Amino acid sequence: MAGVTKMGKRNLYLKTVSVEEAQERFMEKLEPCLEVQYEEIEVVNSLHRITKEASIARYCSPLFNASAMDGIAVVSAHTLGASEKTPVALEEGRDYVVVDTGDPIHPPYDAVIMAEDIVETESGEHTILQAAAPWDNIRPIGEDIVTGEMILPSNHKIRPMDIGALLSAGILTIPVVKKPRMAIYPTGTEIIEPTETPGEGDIIESNSRVIENRVTEGGGIPHRFPAIPDDYEKIRETLVHAIQTHEMVIINAGSSAGREDYTVQVLRELGEVVVHGVAMKPGKPVILAIVQGKPVIGLPGYPVAAYMAYESFVVPVLNKLTGQVDTQGSRAKAVVSKRLVSSLKHREYVRVKLGVVKDKLVASPLARGAGAAMSMVKADGCLIIPQNSEGIGAGESAEVVLYKALTEIVQTLVVIGSHDLILDLIADRLPAIYQDEYLSSTHVGSMGGLMALKRGEAHMAPIHLLDEADGSYNVNVVKSLFKEPMALIQGVGRVQGLMVKPGNPLGIQGFEDLRAHRFVNRQRGAGTRLLLDYNLKKRGISPDSILGYSQELTTHMAVAAAVGSDGADVGMGVQSAAMAMGLDFIPVGEESYDFALPQENLEMPEVKHFIEILKSDALKEKLTALGGYAIEHSGEILHIDGRE
Amino acid sequence: MAGVTKMGKRNLYLKTVSVEEAQERFMEKLEPCLEVQYEEIEVVNSLHRITKEASIARYCSPLFNASAMDGIAVVSAHTLGASEKTPVALEEGRDYVVVDTGDPIHPPYDAVIMAEDIVETESGEHTILQAAAPWDNIRPIGEDIVTGEMILPSNHKIRPMDIGALLSAGILTIPVVKKPRMAIYPTGTEIIEPTETPGEGDIIESNSRVIENRVTEGGGIPHRFPAIPDDYEKIRETLVHAIQTHEMVIINAGSSAGREDYTVQVLRELGEVVVHGVAMKPGKPVILAIVQGKPVIGLPGYPVAAYMAYESFVVPVLNKLTGQVDTQGSRAKAVVSKRLVSSLKHREYVRVKLGVVKDKLVASPLARGAGAAMSMVKADGCLIIPQNSEGIGAGESAEVVLYKALTEIVQTLVVIGSHDLILDLIADRLPAIYQDEYLSSTHVGSMGGLMALKRGEAHMAPIHLLDEADGSYNVNVVKSLFKEPMALIQGVGRVQGLMVKPGNPLGIQGFEDLRAHRFVNRQRGAGTRLLLDYNLKKRGISPDSILGYSQELTTHMAVAAAVGSDGADVGMGVQSAAMAMGLDFIPVGEESYDFALPQENLEMPEVKHFIEILKSDALKEKLTALGGYAIEHSGEILHIDGRE
């Protein structure tokens, strides 16, 4: 943390431009300078390389007139008149020679008869029952490949079968596009290598590793360098050197506007900054520059922003340098399960989970933050909200770029509702045991899950909803919301409790003690919040008397983190979150975490397998080891009859 | 070539089994023995590897409560009441500290205000116009990743974004499936390395290179060994050794039944031959064996047969060993442009070119021979004729496994008709100049091309059809066959002539000399055949008087090859074929090779670009260098009006 002087240095962005305009402006300036380089390599090592020019066959294949069968090469004229009734006897050396498949055929022999069609008589004579026509069963020279024929065109990605044909045609080396060398520089003083132990304020550098592997996938050679500290001279010096030895330079500019400015200033000094700031979210603080005719791209620091900016601006340049055709990923139309508001100021990229429910492709948005690296890992696709749109309503459809094959998505059990670690465990087991079946879970809370079920956008909703009237869980609320026959697959009993600092320094024992300390609450509608309210009411404690009752966080872990980092003295949640954060835990009750679904979905194979895993000893052992779970009824089914 | 004794050794196949039965029988016996192996590797080197087990986060991300913005960290309670009308002045150190994005936030600070929202008054004071709520612009510890959370499930193929998340979660090494080692042995005494100069009877070994690269693509480590000669003891010895050091052995058994038998006998001695001979075409002589619990697969010798058998039998085993899910290639329904007859004895795999004509996906079969390696290179897909089918009629639809993305296929100009090298040249230029546009050409002769055009299965038909009435080319036949408005894009004039042995030892000068020598003819309907007949008729020469008039070959090159290999003394064809085979050439006339198409197709961008390339100086230079072409009218368009 620095002084106010640091603030004084900050510049506002240049006026941001649209994604298309940024791409066009950059490529237009860049294209005259970009030069694809070539090299001659051995054909046997050319897999997946891109050809420079058409390859022309040096040899024919076959190289000579060759027998296509195991049998005998004959003079066709000597076989005339042969039939079932008038077999013709042949004499070796005069009428035929024995040949194997691939043997050369010379005059006077001009046809081959298969071994199976030769009849050996009792007297040991070899006879045939059918005449041969000239060229029968002979592969003429050049049948497959002719000298001078084009084997591969230019700009072609070499496949295994291409290598076979090239070698057969006598081609041993081939000119291909040389892989461009791409320098990748993380920047930032707070950045540490993953191998170092992080202290407070340290950020583990991982973006450069993502970029490095995307470059490899894209056909470039990545050179990933250690982080450059935030030092104008160092950045300048490093860039001057990198540009000499690489076809492209990528700077991961750090997420701070101050730092980004260093990079922009250095690039202005060394060359031309074509674009600074693009109307996309995430990904806005991107820098597109040209230094000595070479592209230098500054990517934002947040992981998702870096990734999206890479796809939009680095990939087109890399495609040019590697001679590849721009390929857009597969796209599909999907129904959005949750309203998405977006601004007219930018194009927005929203990661989504996908699944097919009642023949509809359903997209459930994941965390939208630029820092949410896990949203990239969990995503099945990316939904694009155009710059001229204010958003997409729930139930409306939108275009999605697919990160997974549609065939995989079809066999995905779509689970929307409240989160528990048990979903991760089952999501892990399902594809491992039942090939090609997947579980996708989206976390919108219990009521959100039941609403998704009602709209036909989920197969199953994990819920923990208390009926304040009788203290029971889940059954009553499902009965009251659905007309059709429903079921509850019983999940686990979860111990809920108060989370306090290690050693419980304030001596908190129960709900009565909340009034004296700084509390942090969950959001309205959360099962934990309902349990709290039920207990406060039962005890006659007014919410107004609790300091921080109105301070809402949206996950168990966020509450645990708030307590752990002294943002609060006490919060309420499940035992596993407290354990993960090293907090003390005071149990106050048990809640039922179950899976609601229409009865007809019980027939889905994915649901049957879900139940099998839920009942398995392997899963129960894991839950026992984690602690805080009651598992005696896991996998049992409660039927909730439909109403008229 | 060996004596009859060689024939005596040959065994008939065991009864062949269907593809499905062979796969099931083999996998059933094999699965109890197959053991997937694992190894722990560095996460930074784990791209595209398959995870062994779920990876669990060691750290949270962020690791601490962090500022999400550049700005100031404030005590939210000190900002209460701030508004446009009642700005609140803040004092550094007491009310706020300056923070950059990512900086840790400590109590008493509990919110961040963006730099842009701070107003500096004339007196130098920093004021705010809006109160901050607790946790505003703070990324709580664990917001993205929580300790104990599952980052990746088991059996997951690691992507670049996964590597980023693993590193952020403090995971440095990861257990993954160890790549299986696959031994690949070509066999055969006639086989030479591509680097050797082939003599007669030699076959350039290329199958092992195709297999090697397919193994690499499939996630295995290929070890390709030099060819084993046809020697029982050598084969036995080599196999015994290979099985110790590899997870799987592939023998490319050579195409001879005799040789295959060696392999089968050795495998019977060393282990169990589960399947020998499968009802598929090409690919029948496949051997599926298990030796010491390890799979040993004998692939057929012909290139296409080896490839198809690899896909059917090696891929499923390799998928098991690499922990990958079986993925079937993309499939589509296509209309077949030519009748395909097949036998009930086997499932047949036919390579096809694909294109979209009038919204129909059209499949044009390529050469069906097992030796036609170029059919693999040229194919856009593979059509499967089931074992229980006798074939598919022209215009009927069938399922095709796609080798190319449908998006590429849509932008393909479908050309069906007579072949000339000029099509290869344009097919090469088109995607190089106009990204994403392709030309697919199928060779069925001029009349076949016009019929395909009539059935709406081609965009354009290259033809060279003589009108015997007046000696003109192409215009009259198109006019007589089509009612709608048609066009001819003029192609090239081609010099046709008689091909004779080098030095013309028989002194052949013209059509009159054909009577005295062994002739080889083209098939009925071929343009060259029509030109011959026209000239014979003009000169009053009877076809019956020509020895070999009824001997038909289907390409210029096959005719040239027949003359070159002394299968005949003289044949007729284009100059380029004679030159390719080193023959002498006696010009006898010029024919027009043009491109017929409906006038409406002239509007297609691919057709416009085709014409541009046809007219280009670059193409004309190439044709001039090849010789035998008249190019003065190339690219000019003749309109042929429609009839009522």
From TrEMBL, chains A, B:
Leading EC class: transferase
Enzyme Commission number(s) from the entry: 2.10.1.1
Enzymatic reactions: adenylyl-molybdopterin + molybdate = Mo-molybdopterin + AMP + H(+)
Protein's GO biological process: Mo-molybdopterin cofactor biosynthetic process
Gene Ontology cellular-component terms listed: cytosol
Location of the MoaB/Mog domain: 183-320
Molecular functions per Gene Ontology: metal ion binding; molybdopterin molybdotransferase activity
Keywords assigned: Magnesium, Metal-binding, Molybdenum, Molybdenum cofactor biosynthesis, Transferase
Cofactors that this protein relies on: Mg(2+)
Pathway: Cofactor biosynthesis; molybdopterin biosynthesis
NCBIfam families: molyb_syn (TIGR00177), PRK14498.1 (NF011068)
Entry similarity comment: Belongs to the MoeA family.
Function noted in UniProt: May be involved in the biosynthesis of molybdopterin. Catalyzes the insertion of molybdate into adenylated molybdopterin with the concomitant release of AMP.
Protein name: Molybdopterin molybdenumtransferase
Gene source species: Eubacterium aggregans
Lineage: Bacteria, Bacillati, Bacillota, Clostridia, Eubacteriales
